[in-house]
Amino acid sequence: MVRCQVKLGWIRRAAELIERILIGPIIRITPDEIHIDDVGFLDTVFAPSKFFRDKYDYQLRSLRVQGGVGATKSHELHKKRRDALSPFFSKRNVLFLEPLILEKVEQLRRLIAKHAADKTIVNLSDVFFAFCNEYGSGMISKTLLMNLHSVVTNFLFAHHIDNLADEANAGALRNNSVNLLRGVHMNKHFPWIPSLFESLPSSVSKGMMPPGLVDLRALFDRVRAELLTIMENKKSGVSREASRGPTGKESVYDSVLDNPDLPPEEKSLSRLEQEGALLVLAGTESPSKSLGIIFYHLIDNPSMLKTLRTELMAVSTPTSWTQLEQLPYLSAIIEEGNRLSFGVTARTARIAYEALLYTPSSYAASPKKGQSYAIPPGTPISMTTWNLHTSESVFPDPLVFNPDRWLGDAGRERRKFHMAFGKGGRKCLGIELARAELFLVTATLVRSFDMTLWETEREDVAFLHDYQTATPKLGSKGVRVLTAMH
């Protein structure tokens, strides 16, 4: 087990003590919103899609992509948008795309092998970002889904972006993304500031923008250009020769544009470019962060790495994603990496259409026995992945990287409390793609390389700052390693 220390300031610690010990698991944190610290109420707040749950529009200001499925307030509109995209993100379709994912995994392996041959340092955070960005921007590339990215047929866009070919650029993109996310709180509380930037001509505003925002605007421009091409081809009847796979469509956006359940405004250029941009951002940040956490702890704990290698040696190579999912220790490593990545760390409130009754469960830190709380319809109810993933009633010694907690019957039971990819009717659309990436990359690199940490410490992967996602120490250069062939 590896202790993953998070430096909690006294203010945060005091707030936790007040809420959990003096006040209890439910507290009104704004005039309109309540927060509940009780994993036993998780399935009520983040309910299945048959229960109507809106998102809280105030919290959706942060990323300013309200046209994306993940930033949709209305339950009904979210369902329509999600249904149009779901076939491309299904496990069946990801399995169809697995050869494309494996091509990028092999490119990643060759890149690290070159560092091993040259005895040079590789920044795993940068190359994982590049790999996942191709699958998320591969969305923007050949396949929305696949790379949410990188490949040939079935998908979204026609132009492939090879971020792995330029590590320096990948590092700049990652750092710009980190700095861009540091603006999410300003977006939420002072939305007029980004609105002002967006209202200015790009020739004026570009010089005033931080690099991350320039990258984001460039992403929007690429998505718009690709969408215009797709729309023009549909008008003219031009069809690419492509293997359509289980979806029966050439691309994600072919499916969206042909969907009879979506009104014309849902097929507008401005709406779809926001959809594409958000899918790329989400498809990059979460899996790349999990990979960094996983490899830091594997390298820092040789006995853990040895156990994983022993398990991998028992199966033949090449090994498919389906085969890898059957390996209990590898699966436990992936689960624990996702748990300590925390997914979306900001408050993600849900608004129920019906009245709810909350009675503290046995999981609550300090339940007020016998006391129940009536929650009126329309009340934003938030829970955070920090509270959920560090709940000691479910995850004892929660700041320890301990994959053993996911093994056996107890481990299977804990999975219902996992929130790294969300839960209920609005859980992450790309969860199967992310899982395929995590399993295939982890297995390939563990089999191929011996790694030693270089000027990297736990604060480079710990949750120290909340900027929509878990952020390590400011100024961190990421997980850097020296490698040798195994």
Write the layout of secondary structure elements.
Elements: E1 2-3, H1 10-23, E2 26-28, E3 34-36, H2 42-45, E4 53-55, H3 75-89, H4 91-118, E5 122-123, H5 124-136, H6 167-181, H7 184-189, H8 192-199, H9 202-205, H10 211-236, H11 252-258, H12 269-300, H13 302-313, H14 321-324, H15 328-341, E6 350-352, E7 356-358, E8 373-375, E9 380-382, H16 385-389, E10 400-401, H17 408-414, H18 431-448, E11 449-453, E12 465-467, E13 469-471, E14 480-485
Parallel strand pairs: 3-9
Antiparallel strand pairs: 1-10, 2-3, 4-6, 5-14, 6-9, 7-8, 11-14, 12-13
Helix pairs in contact: 3-11, 4-5, 4-18, 5-6, 5-12, 6-10, 10-12, 12-13, 12-15, 12-18
Question: What would you say about this model in short?
Answer:
With 486 residues, this protein is α+β, with helices and mostly antiparallel strands.
End-to-end separation in angstroms reads 23 Å
**What is the 3D form?**
globular
Q: Characterize the biggest β-sheet.
A: 5 strands, mixed
Separate helix tally = 18
User: Approximately how much helix is present in the residues?
Assistant: 40-55%
Beta-strand fraction estimate: 5-15%
Structural class: alpha+beta
Number of strands: 14
Integer-rounded radius of gyration: 22 Å
Main sheet strand line-up: 2-3-9-6-4
Mean pLDDT rating: 84
Which consecutive residue ranges, at least 5 long each, have pLDDT under 50? 1-11, 137-156
